[in-house]
Design brief:
The chain has 161 residues and is mainly beta. It is 0% helix and 42% strand. The chain contains no helices and ten strands. It is globular, with a radius of gyration of 15 Å.
Length: 161
């Protein structure tokens, strides 16, 4: 089993109501059906209160190897740079051609985007044209559905810029 290379970081958090965007597929594509309202989650203090954020509920098990389970709520940073997308970064991807949304690790090779495999079955990496996929956000923390709020898996917190 591959060791997780993301270092755990200690941050302080604040409770904040963040827009809820619906469900995101993990190992399967889900139609993007925007939801309304907000979800109160723990947000790392280094992120300004005015920064655009979003939350989505994970549906599927393909990210369980990296600590994100079916039913977990992911906190998404909506404004980011391409340099902030590291090989272990989980991204929210919207596929305009089908109207579907999926959570995946991505990397860039030459002029292609690689949707990286991180599940249990035999599927492999998928190479796509970057124009065919819209990166809607990067996961910066995870709230477990199985425990009382707030539970933050700090190993998905990104580093302050």
């Amino acid at each position: 089993m591959k060791e997780n290379r993301i270092a755990k970081r200690a941050f302080s958090y604040r409770a904040q109501a963040v827009p809820y965007e619906g469900e995101i597929g993990a190992g399967r594509l889900l139609p993007f059906i925007p939801k309304g309202g907000t979800v109160e989650v723990a947000v790392p203090d280094y992120i300004p209160e005015t920064e655009p954020l979003g939350t989505m509920t994970v549906r599927g098990r393909s990210l369980s190897r990296v600590g994100i389970d079916d039913g977990d709520i992911v906190l998404l940073r909506k404004i980011f740079t391409k340099s902030q997308i590291k090989p272990d970064t989980i991204c929210s991807l919207y596929i305009p051609a089908t109207g579907e949304v999926v959570a995946k690790k991505i990397t860039f090779r030459e002029e292609r985007m690689v949707l990286r495999y991180c599940g249990y079955d035999d599927e492999g990496d998928i190479y796509v044209d970057p124009d065919d996929v819209d990166i809607r956000g990067i996961v910066i923390s995870v709230s477990r559905h199985k425990t009382e709020w707030p539970f933050i898996d700090e190993h998905y917190s990104d580093v302050p810029l």
